Amino acid sequence: MAKKLTPEPSKDIYLKVLRPLVETYFAVCDKGSSHIRSLGLTPSQFDVIATLGDTEGMTCKELSEKTLVTKGTLTGVLDRLEKKSLIERMPSKQDRRSIFIRLTPKGDAYFLKVFPPHMQYIKPYFERALTAAEVTKLHELLLRLKNSFEKD
71 Cβ partners below 8 Å, 6+ apart? Predict the structure, then answer.
C-alpha cells in the first residue's frame, strides 16, 4: 500500500479555511450585489463609483488596479457611467497617453447617495459576527494571505 504524502482533506488545516473563505466571498457578493442593484447600479459600476468617490480621480490604469473590475470589462463600465453623466474622461496632464477618470458633480452626488447606504447595509453582517478588534485582525490576515498569493 502506498504511503500518503499529504493528510486527508478533512484534516488539512489549509483546506479547512479555504472553503469557508470562498463561501464567504460568494455570500458577500450575493448579498452585496442584490443591494447594489436595488440602488440602480451593477456591482462593477458601484465598484468604480466607490473607488472614485472622495478622490480627485485617477488614470484608467490606477482604476483597474484598485477595483475588482477586469480590464476587459472596465471600458464598457466606464462607457455606461459616462452615458449616465456620472464620470468624465479627460486626457491626463502628466501623461498624454493616459486617460484620467473622475466623477462629475452628478457622480459625486450619486456616490454620496449610494455609498453610505450600502456600507450601512453591509456593516451589520460584520458586527453580528466579529468584534472591532477581530475585524482589524481579519483585515491584517487577509492582506497577508493576499500578498502571499501575489508573490511569484
Answer: 64
The matching CATH number, chosen from 1.10.3720.10, 1.10.150.20, 3.30.420.280, 1.10.10.10, for 9-150 is: 1.10.10.10
Classify each residue of 66-92 as buried b or exposed e, where b means 16 or more C-beta atoms within 10 Å of its C-beta. ebebeeeebeebbebbeeeebbbeeeb
**pLDDT tens readout for residues 8-56:** 777 888 888 999 999 999 999 999 999 999 988 999 999 999 999 999 9
Q: pTM of the predicted model, to two decimals?
A: 0.83
What single DSSP character describes residue 59? Answer: E
100: cell is 484620467
Output phi, psi for 5, to 5 deg.
Answer: -90, -25
User: Greatest CA separation found in the chain?
Assistant: 71
Q: Where are the beta strands (DSSP E) in the chain?
A: 58-59, 87-91, 99-103
